[in-house]
């Protein structure tokens, strides 16, 4: 498994984030050098993506990507497709940490094929995509991943499925989540879409 060691030539952003990971501190999307605003007006997609991609070593663990209370508007998907065994842990403060967008893709999106199965956790977040064909969370090619303690409002709430054997979410789960459709499109919404290797526990779909 890859480590987050610091080379003699690294400086700045990479060193700061790796030190945070090594001592167990989260990568805060609002703090320098990422500087997400979280006011619901400024598009924070680039800042959040930079926080997810802080480690230039694609095979290394990403640690906790922390969303302090705020409304994070995103105009594009936040992608995490690195070929690493340990993926990011997206963590917020429940309904106080909202990531919201209005586009046809997924707010948080791992859309890969033939990659190393990745452990990813998405927890304590409020995720909303107001596009009539938009999605909340997509995970493909994961292992022991979880979406837990989240509220997700989207046409497709959580998609954790893919083509076996390489794209499936193995031994993964959706736990204690509330999934809402959107307005007049609720009747055609898909709350949770999973494959045979994924379990759903204690979720409400309305």
Descriptive report:
With 206 residues, this protein is mainly beta. Helices cover 9% and strands 36% of the residues. It is built from 2 helices and 19 strands. It has helices at residues 12-22, 45-52, and strands at residues 27-28, 39-43, 64-66, 70-73, 78-79, 86-91, 97-101, 106-110, 119-123, 126-129, 135-139, 146-148, 151-153, 156-160, 172-175, 178-180, 190-194, 198-201, 204-205. It has a 7-stranded parallel β-sheet with strand order 1-3-6-9-12-15-18. The protein is globular. The model is unreliable at 1-6 (pLDDT under 50).
Summarize this structure as a short list of keywords or feature phrases.
single chain; 206 residues; mainly beta
Summarize the structure.
The protein has two helices and 19 strands. With 206 residues, it is mostly beta strands. The termini are far apart.
Q: If you compute it from the alpha carbons, what radius of gyration comes out, rounded to the nearest whole angstrom?
A: 16 Å
Helical fraction equals under 10%
Q: How far apart are the termini?
A: 40 Å
Major beta sheet summary: 7 strands, parallel
Rounded mean pLDDT is 82
* Coarse morphology: globular
Structural category is mainly beta
Number of helices: 2
Number of distinct beta strands: 19
The main sheet orders its strands as: 1-3-6-9-12-15-18
Give the low-confidence spans: 1-6
- Note the run of SSEs as H and E: HEEHEEEEEEEEEEEEEEEEE
- Range of strand content: 35-45%
List the helices and strands and how they pair.
Blueprint: H1 12-22, E1 27-28, E2 39-43, H2 45-52, E3 64-66, E4 70-73, E5 78-79, E6 86-91, E7 97-101, E8 106-110, E9 119-123, E10 126-129, E11 135-139, E12 146-148, E13 151-153, E14 156-160, E15 172-175, E16 178-180, E17 190-194, E18 198-201, E19 204-205
Parallel strand pairs: 1-3, 2-4, 3-6, 4-7, 5-8, 6-9, 7-10, 8-11, 9-12, 10-13, 11-14, 12-15, 13-16, 14-17, 15-18, 16-19
């Amino acid at each position: 498994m890859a480590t987050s060691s610091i080379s003699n030539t690294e400086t700045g952003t990479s060193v700061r984030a790796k030190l945070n990971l090594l001592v167990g501190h989260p990568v805060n999307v609002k703090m320098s050098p990422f500087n997400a605003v979280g006011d619901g007006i400024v598009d924070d997609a680039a800042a959040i993506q930079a926080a997810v991609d802080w480690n230039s070593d694609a095979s290394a663990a990403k640690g906790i990507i922390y969303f302090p209370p705020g409304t994070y508007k995103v105009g594009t998907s936040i992608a995490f497709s690195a070929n690493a065994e340990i993926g990011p842990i997206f963590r917020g403060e429940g309904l106080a940490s909202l990531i919201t967008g209005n586009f046809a893709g997924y707010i948080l999106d791992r859309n890969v094929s033939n990659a190393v199965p990745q452990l990813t956790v998405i927890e304590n977040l409020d995720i909303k995509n107001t596009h009539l064909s938009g999605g909340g969370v997509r995970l493909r090619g994961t292992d022991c991943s979880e979406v837990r303690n989240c509220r997700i409002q989207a046409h497709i709430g959580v998609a954790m499925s893919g083509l076996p054997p390489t794209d499936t979410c193995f031994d993964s789960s959706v736990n204690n989540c509330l999934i809402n459709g959107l307005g007049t499109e609720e009747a055609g919404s898909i709350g949770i879409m999973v494959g045979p290797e994924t379990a759903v526990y204690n979720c409400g779909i309305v």
